[in-house]
Specification:
heterodimer, A: alpha/beta, eight-stranded mixed beta sheet, 20 helices, elongated, B: mainly beta
C-alpha cells in the first residue's frame, strides 16, 4: 500500500465516522419513528448533489468529548433550491442533543455571515436541546457566548426560514423567532426552555404540548405558520415558501410563467362574493380566483383568521394579499389580526413584493378583550407599518369599509392606487349601527324612523361617491379586478429603483 | 371518542341552528349561524365529527368564548 493509499483510506474512514453522526443505534431508532436524520433532511431539501458541507470535522472543544461529537451536532453548508443557492444549519439530535456549543456556534456564525454577504436565504432545521452543559456553565462558560454582536440582529438582508422538527429550545428557538416563515412537525416543541427545565423552575408539572406544541403556535401565538405530520411535508413547505421570495433584498422575486388569460374565470367572483352585505363568504376563495391558478400560498392560516395573508402570483409576478375575511368574526379585525397583517407587510416590504389589500370589514373589533390585548397600539403599529411600506400598494374595497379600518386597509392615499367595486359601502361606520349611535334609534324601537334615518345616514356612501372626490381612482365591476391589478402592477413598477422598496420595515420585529 | 368543544368566536345572538344532534359534520361545515354586527356569522366545525349536544337555543345571546356545541370526533 502506497503512502497515498494509506492517507486516502484513513481520510475516507474518518469521513465515514463523521458522516455516521451519533451512530447506527440512535439513527435506526429515529428511522423506526419515521423521522429523517439531519443529513437526510438536507438531501430532501436541496437539489440532488448540490450540498456542500462546511465544518464536517468540527467537534466539541473539550478533549474528553471530541470522540462523541462528530460535526459537533450541527450540520452546516450550502446547496441549491430550484437552482438558487441557499445556506443551511441542520441540527443533529443524535450528537449531544444538537446542543449549542462553542464550536458549532462558530459554524452558525459563519453560515450567517456568508449568507448575508452573498445574498442567500438561510434555512434552520431545528431539533435541539438548547445550550450545551457543561460548556456554558460558570462565568467563563456564559461569558464565552455573545462574541458576535450581530448574532441576533435581524435586518432581512436575505430570507430566514425555520422548520421545527423536534424539541427546540434556546438558540434553535431564537433563530426560529427571527425567521420569515416557520413550519413545525406535529409533536415538536418550540419554547424558551424544555418542559423539564420549566417544570423545575416553576415547581409544577408542565405539559409539553401546552408549553410549546403546534396548536399553541399555529392558533394562539401565531409564531408558527404551518403544522404538518412529517419531516418531508415540512421540508416541501420550506421549498415552496422560498419559491415566492428573492434570494436577497437586492433582487425582486423570481417570475413564473404567466398563465393564459383564457384560463381565468372572472365570472366566478360573482358567485363567491354575495352582493348582500350581511352574507359572509371566505375571502380566500376570492384571492384564489383573482390570482394565477393554484398560486395562492396562505401564511399563518390557523391564526387570527379574521385576516388573511397570502403570497400569490399575478401574471407570474409575486404579489402579497392582505384581506379581512368576513367568514370569521364578520371580518372585524382584532389585535391578533393586526399583528398578522403587520408581520406580512414587513415580509413584503423587505423582499420587494407588491401588496394588494382587499377590504370588506365592519371595522376593528371593539370590546373589552380587544382593549386588554392592546388594540389601539396594534392598530397604530399596523398603520405605521403600512405608511412605511414603499413597495407598490393597491387597495380594493369589495363591500364594506368603515372608519379607521378604511385607512388601515389602504384607503385614500395609504395605497398607490385605490379602487372600489360597485358594491362598496364606505363611511364612518355601518349605517345599521350608525343610526343608533347618532340618533339613539334602533330597528326595534321605531322601525319606520330607523329606516328613514338609515337611508339618510347611508346616503353618499357608494363607490361613486368615493370616486367623485378622487379618493379612489376607479369603480370596478368585480370581474375586472384581475385585469385592473395586472395593469396597475405594470404602471406602479418602481422602475427607478429596479422594482425595489426602500426597506424601511426591514428591521421591524414581527413577533411583537 | 374524544370530545371537541366548539366556542363562539364573537358576541352576538344565535340566529339559526342548521344541524341536529347526532348529525355528522365535516371540517368547516356550518353548524349554526350567529348574528353580530348585522352580519350572519357561521359557527364552523373545527374538525370532522358528530354533534353530541347544543348548549344554546335559537335566539339566545352568546358571548365570545362561550361553549355552543360539543362534537365527538
Amino acid at each position: 500500500m502506497s503512502d497515498y493509499q494509506r492517507l486516502i483510506e484513513d481520510h475516507e474512514a474518518k469521513k465515514a465516522r463523521f458522516l455516521g453522526m451519533g451512530g447506527l443505534e440512535k439513527l435506526s431508532k429515529r428511522k423506526a419513528l419515521g423521522l429523517l436524520d439531519a443529513r437526510e433532511r438536507i438531501d430532501r431539501l436541496f437539489d440532488a448533489g448540490s450540498f456542500t458541507e462546511t465544518g464536517l470535522f468540527a467537534t466539541s472543544h473539550l478533549p474528553e468529548a471530541r470522540d462523541r461529537s462528530p460535526t459537533d451536532g450541527k450540520v452546516c453548508g450550502f446547496g441549491d433550491i430550484d437552482g438558487r443557492p441557499a445556506a443551511i444549519v441542520s441540527c443533529d439530535l443524535t450528537v449531544m442533543g444538537a446542543s449549542s456549543s462553542l464550536n458549532n456556534v462558530k459554524k452558525m456564525a459563519h453560515i450567517r455571515r456568508t449568507a448575508t454577504r452573498n445574498g442567500m436565504p438561510i434555512i434552520f432545521l431545528n431539533e435541539t436541546s438548547g445550550a450545551r452543559i457543561p460548556d456554558t456553565m460558570g462565568a467563563q462558560g456564559t461569558g464565552a457566548l455573545g462574541q458576535d454582536p450581530t448574532q441576533f440582529l435581524r435586518d432581512r438582508q436575505s430570507p430566514y426560514v425555520a422548520a421545527c422538527l423536534g424539541p427546540s429550545f434556546g438558540t434553535g428557538t431564537w433563530y426560529t423567532m427571527l425567521s420569515d416563515f416557520v413550519v413545525m412537525r406535529k409533536g415538536a416543541i418550540l419554547a424558551v426552555s424544555s418542559p423539564r427545565v420549566t417544570s423545575l423552575a416553576i415547581g409544577e408539572a408542565v405539559d409539553a404540548e401546552e408549553l410549546g406544541g403546534w396548536k399553541l403556535h399555529t392558533e394562539k401565538t401565531g409564531l408558527v405558520d404551518y403544522a404538518v405530520d412529517t419531516d418531508e411535508e415540512a421540508l416541501d413547505l420550506v421549498r415552496k415558501f422560498l419559491s415566492y421570495l428573492p434570494s436577497h433584498a437586492g433582487q425582486t422575486p423570481p417570475v413564473a410563467p404567466a398563465p393564459e388569460e383564457s384560463e381565468i374565470d372572472a365570472e366566478k367572483i360573482l358567485s363567491i362574493v354575495p352582493p348582500q352585505r350581511q352574507k359572509v363568504y371566505d375571502v380566500r376563495k376570492l384571492i384564489a380566483a383573482v390570482a394565477d391558478p393554484d398560486s395562492m400560498f396562505e401564511l399563518k392560516p390557523r391564526f387570527a383568521r379574521v385576516a388573511t395573508t397570502a403570497l400569490t402570483r399575478i401574471g407570474g409576478r409575486v404579489v402579497g394579499f392582505v384581506a379581512s375575511n368576513p367568514m370569521f368574526k364578520a371580518g372585524a379585525i382584532d389585535p391578533d389580526g393586526c399583528d398578522k397583517i403587520t408581520s406580512f407587510l414587513v415580509l413584503c416590504d423587505s423582499f420587494n413584493i407588491p401588496i394588494v389589500i382587499l377590504t370588506d370589514t365592519p371595522g376593528f373589533l371593539i370590546g373589552i378583550d380587544g382593549e386588554r390585548k392592546k388594540a389601539p397600539g396594534k392598530i397604530m403599529n399596523f398603520m405605521t407599518a403600512l405608511q412605511m411600506c414603499t413597495v407598490p400598494k393597491f387597495s380594493i374595497v369589495t363591500r364594506k369599509s368603515y372608519g379607521q379600518a378604511y385607512l388601515n386597509m389602504g384607503g385614500s392615499r395609504n395605497s398607490d392606487e385605490m379602487a372600489a367595486w360597485f358594491t362598496a359601502d364606505v363611511g364612518f361606520m355601518d349605517p345599521n349601527i350608525g343610526v343608533n349611535v347618532v340618533y339613539g334609534v334602533t330597528a326595534e324601537s321605531d322601525p319606520q324612523k330607523f329606516e328613514e334615518l338609515k337611508a339618510e345616514i347611508g346616503r353618499e356612501t357608494s363607490a361613486y361617491d368615493l370616486a367623485s372626490i378622487y379618493s379612489s381612482q376607479a369603480v370596478l365591476d368585480p370581474r375586472e379586478t384581475r385585469d385592473w391589478l395586472m395593469r396597475m402592477l405594470k404602471y406602479h413598477s418602481r422602475a427607478m429603483n429596479g422594482g425595489k422598496s426602500e426597506r424601511r420595515l426591514a428591521s421591524w420585529p414581527t413577533t411583537f | 371518542m374524544p370530545e371537541v368543544k366548539v366556542e363562539s368566536e364573537i358576541t352576538g345572538t344565535v340566529w339559526k341552528i342548521e344541524t341536529g344532534v347526532g348529525q355528522s359534520v365535516a371540517e368547516d361545515d356550518v353548524i349554526m349561524i350567529l348574528e353580530s354586527m348585522k352580519m350572519e356569522i357561521p359557527v364552523l366545525a373545527p374538525e370532522a365529527g358528530k354533534i353530541v349536544s347544543f348548549h344554546v337555543d335559537e335566539g339566545a345571546n352568546v358571548s365570545e368564548g362561550q361553549l355552543v356545541v360539543t362534537l365527538e370526533t
